[in-house]
Design goal:
By secondary structure, the chain is an alpha+beta fold. The protein has helices spanning 69-80, 103-118, 126-135, 139-144, 178-185, 196-200, 212-220, 227-233, 236-246, 269-282; strands spanning 4-21, 27-47, 51-55, 86-92, 148-152, 156-159, 165-171, 252-255, 262-265, 287-293.
Amino acid sequence: MPALIEDARAKVNLSLRVMGRRTDGYHELESVVAFADCADRLSLLPGPELHLVTTGPQAQACGETKDNLVLKAAQLLGECVPGLQQGNFALDKVLPVAAGIGGGSADAAAALRLLARANTLAIDDIRVIEVARRTGADVPVCLNSRACIMTGVGDTLQPLALPKLPCVMVNPGVAVATAQVFAALGLRRGELKVGASDVLRAPAWPERGASVEDWVEALAAGCNDLEAPAIRIAPVIAKVIAALNASNGAWLARMSGSGATCFAIYENTAEAQRAAELVQFDHPGWWVHAGVLS
């Protein structure tokens, strides 16, 4: 069988509300999630043994291969599916690591899609979905990599009709640990961050066919609750947002996930491209991508 290939698209949290912290320590979230047109690429050559090789500009930042979520997802699925055919994975790592765009989770989700293809499993097979949940909080949303409203601890997904949003994504090259950001948020176990009145005032998202401008207006009414604690940990995030806001045509600039990647939405792809070139010129050490979210 020839090698199978999947793209692992970057996840972007267009908005992120922390509703509270459960007694088990997990945080309840509500997030509008989109996916970018930049991605890692994962291939699988089916074979008798499980193996992973990582290459690409971000390969060294991935850490120990044995801790990679690609292997974790494959091992967990092997425990659930007797006789699962695995093989040799090759990961071309181009997305920043520990960056708030679900790079490792997207890689793990791509591994599950590849293994499902190699073993004629449906992507909605309950075993595949359960392994996605066990692998990591962002893996379920990355499994289908489609725009949605994500609630709970990342396990409840409501599909969303989102137009293509011209964007610029920027990462300053500073890794930010998700656990550290949530700790800085300071919620105790069992503590609610929002009350009933806050839920009633939750934004109503635009209907199918709404314009980019309609979506920007709706998103601007929300926020990312992790942005402030992340900036306390990595002040450079504020500089990234300021640089995006200073670019011509930026309609909305915000941090994604727990950072440090930030994004801005523009009226069209030409403006996004010009803004990306300006940011890259002013900050040559930053990772910058111009494209679309959908």
